[in-house]
TrEMBL record:
Pfam families: Gly_transf_sug. The lineage of its organism: Eukaryota, Metazoa, Ecdysozoa, Arthropoda, Hexapoda. The chain crosses the membrane at residues 16-37. It comes from the Eukaryota. The keyword Cell division does not apply. The gene is LOC103512653. The keyword Transmembrane helix applies. InterPro entries: GlycoTrfase_DXD_sugar-bd_CS, Nucleotide-diphossugar_trans. This is Uncharacterized protein LOC103512653 isoform X1. It comes from Diaphorina citri. Keywords: Membrane, Transmembrane, Transmembrane helix. PANTHER family: ALPHA-1,4-N-ACETYLGLUCOSAMINYLTRANSFERASE, TRANSFERASE, PUTATIVE-RELATED.
């Protein structure tokens, strides 16, 4: 009898455990399904409004009218014979006034990224600034960004991180950056506009480059810089550039981002772009002028934009530490866009300087 009782107790215990696990599984499935449904509804609703906003930009802002440009039967713009040296002859804009920024796998903004967004909103004044991401933003600098003048022009749009291209995996050593390289080309190919890296500081309006089919910095004896790209969605260089990823090299940082498209495309067809020289600050010499040179007379205001190369220097900038930084150009640039609501008080400044 005792043995039978033990067996019955064992079955009861296992049965309760199985029942408990089944209940947990059902509850988890319901919760997951509810969340995914809500996310899909939100994403669909946002995407619909997003595309309406994008399409509305083409009818104003001095954009070239449809009738002013040649088109293929499928409706895409025919840029054959377009002069990328002079731009569109009557001065209207070919590229929509949209800024694209990509943030993959990062839910927080850095202090420098906040400063750069402030410079974009003030010095370029886009119709839209779109933050493409696969994350939900949070943190104190995201909160600070939402208080910036012009934030009403900012949109957050979901974008899945590309995992492969032409069947080749983008999940290698440099995968997060190579995925961004691919995504920026696809975004311009889809919407047109201006792509900027997260640490690009806008000095002056980029409107002058919106008259061209595609513009990027390509200095003498250097590869192109893909940190700043300005182009029409039908620009001829984009599919040619994307095709170079058939020779994707996951082991090299900038091979497909700059080296190969320079050699395989631009050196053979330079007419496909408006070639910018020494105006976008993509040369690595910027590191010296920004961070190491104590001569603040360097005329950084003559650039249109400057890539800050923030990941190549070890100092961690924030609203306090910037006041301890040596008096260099980068310090002056940052302080121009430090929001009043983040500026230290006199007492806090005294404590910072006494450290």
């Amino acid at each position: 009898m005792k043995r039978k009782r033990n067996i019955l107790d064992l079955f009861r215990t296992r049965g309760c455990l199985v029942l408990f696990l089944l209940v947990i599984l059902v509850i988890g499935t319901i919760i997951t399904g509810t969340i995914m449904y809500q996310m899909s509804i939100q994403k669909k609703t946002f995407s619909k409004n997003f595309h309406l906003e994008i399409n509305s930009i083409s009818v104003d802002d001095n954009m070239c009218a449809y009738s002013q440009m040649a088109h293929f039967p499928n409706g895409s713009v025919d840029f054959r014979g377009f002069n990328n040296y002079t731009g569109y002859p009557n001065g209207c804009y070919v590229v929509p006034n949209i800024i694209h920024i990509i943030k993959f796998n990062e839910f927080e903004f850095t202090f420098i990224q906040m400063i750069c967004i402030a410079s974009i909103l003030t010095n370029h004044n886009p119709r839209l600034l779109i933050l493409h991401t696969n994350m939900e933003f949070k943190g104190k600098y995201w909160e600070a960004i939402q208080r910036l003048p012009g934030f009403d022009k900012v949109r957050v749009q979901y974008l899945a991180k590309p995992r492969s291209i032409f069947g080749l995996s983008l999940n290698g050593k440099y995968g997060i950056w190579h995925s961004s390289d691919v995504a920026r080309l696809r975004l311009i190919h889809t919407y047109g506009g201006i792509y900027l890296d997260n640490d690009v500081y806008v000095v002056q309006s980029l409107d002058r480059y919106r008259r061209f089919e595609f513009a990027l910095e390509w200095n003498y004896h250097m590869n192109l810089g893909n940190q700043i790209l300005i182009g029409h969605r039908d620009a001829r260089v984009i599919p040619l550039w994307l095709d170079t990823y058939k020779e994707y090299n996951a082991s090299l940082w900038y091979y497909n981002g700059g080296v190969l498209p320079t050699k395989a495309v631009l050196e053979h067809k330079p007419e496909l772009i408006h070639r910018v020289r020494d105006k976008f600050g993509t040369d690595t010499q910027m590191i010296f002028y920004l961070y190491l040179n104590n001569d603040t007379s360097w005329q950084w205001q003559e650039y249109d934009v400057i890539h800050l190369f923030i990941r190549y220097q070890g100092f961690e900038f924030n609203e306090s530490s910037v006041f301890r930084y040596p008096h260099t150009v980068i310090k002056d640039m940052i302080l121009r866009f430090l929001p009043d609501y983040m500026f230290p008080t006199s007492e806090e400044l005294r404590r910072i300087n006494n450290r």
